[in-house]
Design a protein that fits this description.
Layout lengths: L2 E5 L5 H10 L13 H10 L2 E9 L2 E9 L11 E9 L8 H16 L3 E6 L4 H9 L2 E2 L12 E5 L1 H8 L5 H8 L20 E3 L2 E10 L2 E8 L4 E8 L5 E3 L18 E5 L2 E5 L6 E5 L7 E3 L20 E6 L2 E8 L2 E10 L2 E8 L6 E5 L5 E5 L6 E5 L17 E3 L4 E5 L3 E6 L4 E5 L2 E4 L9 E9 L22 E6 L4 E7 L2 E2 L9 E3 L2 E4 L3 E6 L20 E4 L2 E4 L4 E6 L8 E7 L5 E6 L8 E6 L2 E6 L5 E4 L1 E5 L5 E6 L8 E7 L2 E9 L5 E10 L5
Parallel strand pairs: 4-5
Antiparallel strand pairs: 1-2, 2-3, 3-4, 5-7, 6-7, 8-9, 9-10, 10-11, 11-12, 13-14, 14-15, 15-16, 16-21, 17-18, 18-19, 19-20, 20-29, 21-28, 22-23, 22-25, 24-27, 25-26, 26-29, 27-28, 30-31, 31-32, 31-35, 33-34, 35-40, 36-37, 37-38, 38-39, 39-48, 40-47, 41-42, 41-44, 43-46, 44-45, 45-48, 46-47
Helix pairs in contact: 1-2, 3-5
Length: about 675
């Protein structure tokens, strides 16, 4: 076995696509797989800095890419985003993983991009520990968001390049002899917690690097991407401060600019003065109806749908909206954003073609339809990732192109969002589109999105079936354990309702700390642009058992209790209170279902039946899932006035995950949920 690591070459794309398609655990999955042409286009659209390929006897067995943007996120000046880091399973116990990472970091140091960003599923313990071992630190969210990953940063290239000129010759020699960063950064544990320490009001990260018998202690200002100080300790124990060279770039810091807001016909539009993001909202709808990113002057810094970078924007009012101008050198982009008569207009002029625009649809329940431009017929699907179009959120170039002349329509009944396709539009998944700007003959590129919001906009309480429920007969047992922070077992007669690994802890989906079959966490908003709803990772603090069916976490200001009548004819009720919550409070459930099962949903007032293999994530007002013995677990808000309470279902390699989601109000969150086991679904 002779492994060669080299830069990407023309002709590699097909082999790389085949490598990814062969292995389900690759970090860039696309429903149905990808082709070589799509992979090649993806590398171009990400403005790839470098892409390394590991080859064994002519076969591609590993990859590592460094990018300025990925579709989801975009890098600041001096940063690169690592992605498409994958090694075939047969090669993971060798040196290839470390070699790919080390060569990528060395390339960064030579080119002057000195901060590495990457994302990892924390439930992938092997990958997470590897990144921590080579010096990756957490400076932001420490639990996975909706995409299932946490982001880590690596500042070792910044440190080494900044102090290199002042190192002792022996320390330089030790640096030159390094073959891997695994023994440089010192041990960091694999806990999901921030490595940031606030010193004199500045968010900092401390590093201790070993170069042979020499040691470098350094401190980083993470918000400005700068080194604050560094010291070198020699083998004899003497130490001295190191001179710090300025990095060859300047990081823009976010300006505190209030959004520009204007309204029309019950709708409101906000344009972020810092990054140009456009958000359209409607009274009564939880979260935005639409979020649209800004097309940057700097095409290699185009905003992702999860994150954009601070920009120097000039925003002035115009009739029905605002005009936004961005300049970079001799290049200029001008966007006129208007909202009038239910139509969002986005008109752009530019000196050279800017970056792409991503638009996220905020409807969670209801349908998505595409009209055929040839005959006007519409193919309609339930809203949900992977429904209607394959999910291409990891490789945007694999998205489906909507034909010019067609129309894309999202509807939850009272609210309807229409996107007429007059210019190229790509469907990344059923709630996310990519739009490129093409100028008309007058030099203006025009985008239009139509909103039709009637009375009753927003989430509705679950529909009630007229059929009499048929509960499962037999005794009910339910056990709550503070050590597991939740319900570890629940049976109805002979029916096992929940799955739980208690007393062990395992990974479930993107949650590395699964121990209970039903538990409660605080999460970011389901409509958060940056994260979306998380995965129910419990906090590290202890839970207290207030009574046999009641738990409390004083450190999180959460308490919840289960009411479980002896008679199975009466539903189980869960009441949750979190006075300190600011966004969402979620009751999570891992039902005892087979790997492939059936779910029945009330989505926007309509009954829908799905096979769990047909979606990744769907939202509903209420849901019933078929358990392993053929009975059904019914989940719905309890009582009247459920308002913004919704149920989310996610399919994972670990099984089905249910989240019962309730929004916090001005004084925190209170929610009640009704759970029952029936012989047939009652939706």
């Amino acid at each position: 076995m002779s492994i060669t690591i080299r830069p990407y070459q023309e002709g590699d794309a097909h082999d790389i696509a085949e490598l990814y398609n062969r292995h389900r655990d690759n970090p860039n999955p696309v429903a149905g797989g990808i082709g070589g042409d799509e992979l090649e286009r993806e590398l171009t659209e990400r403005d790839t800095a470098t892409f390394l390929v590991a080859v064994d006897d002519g076969r591609v067995v590993g990859t590592f890419g460094l990018f300025h943007s990925t579709g989801r996120r975009s890098a600041r000046a001096g940063e690169l985003i690592a992605d498409m880091f994958f090694v075939a399973p047969a090669y993971r116990n060798g040196v290839i993983t470390g070699r790919l990472f080390t060569e990528a970091v060395e390339w960064m140091m030579k080119c002057g991009c000195l901060v590495l960003r990457l994302t990892v599923n924390p439930a992938n313990a092997v990958a997470f520990r590897l990144y921590r071992r080579v010096g990756c630190v957490s400076v932001g969210e420490t639990v996975p968001g909706e995409d299932g990953n946490v982001e880590l940063h690596n500042y070792i290239p910044l440190i080494l390049r900044s102090v290199f000129a002042d190192l002792d010759p022996e320390a330089v020699a030790a640096l030159g002899g390094l073959s891997s960063f695994a023994n440089v950064a010192g041990g960091r544990d694999d806990e999901l917690r921030s490595d940031v320490r606030v010193v004199d009001g500045v968010r900092t990260i401390a590093y201790a690097l070993a170069l042979g018998e020499y040691r470098i202690d350094a401190s980083i200002d993470v918000d400005r991407g700068l080194m604050l100080d560094a010291r070198l300790t020699a083998p004899d124990g003497t130490d001295r401060p190191l001179r710090i060279a300025e990095p060859p770039y300047r990081v823009k810091t976010a300006r505190q600019v209030p959004p520009h807001r204007f309204e029309s016909g019950g709708l409101a539009c906000e344009v972020d003065g810092g990054d140009g993001t456009v958000t359209v909202t409607a009274a009564g709808h939880h979260g935005p109806l639409l979020v649209s990113t800004w097309p940057s002057c700097e095409a290699d810094r185009s905003a992702g749908w999860r994150e954009g970078q601070p920009r120097d924007l000039d925003v002035v009012p115009v009739e029905h909206g605002v005009r936004v101008t961005e300049r970079s050198g001799e290049d200029e982009v001008v966007g006129t954003i208007t909202l009038d008569g239910g139509v969002l207009g986005q008109d752009f002029t530019f000196t050279r073609r800017p970056g792409r625009i991503f638009q996220t649809i905020g409807l969670r329940q209801g349908t998505f339809a595409r009209t055929d431009p040839a005959d006007g017929t519409a193919a309609e699907h339930l809203l949900g990732t992977g429904i209607g179009v394959r999910d291409a959120s990891e490789v945007v170039a694999a998205a489906e192109v909507a034909p010019v002349g067609s129309e894309l329509v999202w509807s939850d009944g009272p609210t309807r969002i229409e996107l007429p396709v007059t210019r190229p539009v790509r469907l990344i998944h059923a709630g996310l589109v990519e739009r490129h700007l093409e100028q008309d003959e007058d030099g203006v590129a025009r985008l239009r999105t139509v909103f039709r919001a009637g009375p009753g906009t927003g989430a509705r309480p679950a529909a009630r079936s007229t059929a009499a429920p048929q509960p499962v007969a037999g005794a009910r047992t339910l056990k709550v354990q503070a050590a597991a922070a939740g319900v570890t077992s629940w049976t109805e007669g002979g029916t096992k309702v929940l799955r739980s690994p208690h007393p062990r802890t395992r990974a479930f989906g993107c949650n590395p700390r699964w121990s209970a079959g039903m538990w409660v966490t605080r999460e970011h908003s389901r409509s958060s642009r940056a994260t979306g709803l998380g995965w129910g990772v419990p906090t590290a603090g202890e839970w207290e058992q207030k009574h046999p069916f009641g738990l409390a976490a004083p450190h999180e200001r959460i308490s919840w209790e289960v009411t479980a009548p002896e008679s199975a004819a009466e539903p189980v009720r869960v009441d949750v209170r979190a006075p300190g919550a600011e966004e969402e409070i979620v009751l999570w459930i891992t039902p005892n279902t087979p790997s492939r099962t059936t779910v029945v949903l009330d989505s926007a007032g309509a009954r829908r039946e799905l096979d769990s293999s047909g979606f990744r994530q769907v939202w509903a007002a209420a849901a019933a899932v078929r358990l392993a013995d053929g009975s059904w677990l019914d989940c719905r808000p309890a009582g009247e006035g459920a308002g913004e309470a919704e149920v989310v279902l996610r399919t994972t390699a670990s099984g089905l995950l249910i989240g019962c989601v309730a929004a916090a109000g001005p004084h925190g969150a209170e929610a009640s949920w009704q759970l029952a086991v029936h012989r047939e679904p009652v939706l």
